[in-house]
Amino acid sequence: MTYKNVFVEGPITPEKIATSIAHHQVKTNIGAHDIFLGQVRADEIDGKTVQAIEYSAYNEMALKTFHEIRESAFEKYDLTCMHIYHSNGIVKTGEICLFVFTSSAHRKEAMDACRYLVEEIKAKAPVFGKELFEDDSHQWKVNK
Questions:
Q1: Segment 23-69, tens digit of pLDDT
Q2: Beta-bridge mates of residue 104
Q3: Distance from C-alpha of 12 to C-alpha of 21, rounded to nearest angstrom
Q4: Residues with Cβ < 8 Å from 41, sequence gap 6 or more?
Q5: How many CA atoms lie within 13 A of 25 on its CB side?
Q6: Which of 97, 58, 84 is nearest to 4 (CA)?
Q7: CATH number of 7-140
Q8: Which of 19, 2, 6 is nearest to 100 (CA)?
Q9: Model pTM?
C-alpha cells in the first residue's frame, strides 16, 4: 500500500502554510480550522545552544504510522479535512518543523482533533531528531 507522504525536505515555509489555508476558502462547509505549528527552539543543554535539528525517519514505517494516526482521527472526530506535514533534514532554530491543520464544520471538533493528532504524532511517529550545536557537536533529541 502507498501512503500519503507527510514529509517536507527542510523547514516548512510560511508560504506553504499560507497556501494551504488559502486553498480551503472554496470549501464553504467548513466553519472552523485549527493549526499547530511546531518550531525548533534554541535550547541550551550543558552550556551549548541548539542551532538546528536534523530530522530523519525510516520512511516506510513512519508513513504507515502517520496514516494510522490520520485514520484514527477521522474515526474519532467529524473532520472535513486534515493535513500533516513534518520536516525531514535540517531545520534551523526559529523555523517550522511540524504543521498540523484540521478543518470541520464546528470549532470543537477541529480543535480537539488537532490536539489529538499532535499528541499521537509525538508519542508514536518514528521520526528522530538530532540536535546540532554551535560547536558542531550533536545529540539525539528526547521528545517531551
A1: 999 999 999 999 999 999 999 999 999 999 999 998 999 999 999 99
A2: 32
A3: 14
A4: 50, 93
A5: 5
A6: 84
A7: 3.90.1170.40
A8: 6
A9: 0.94
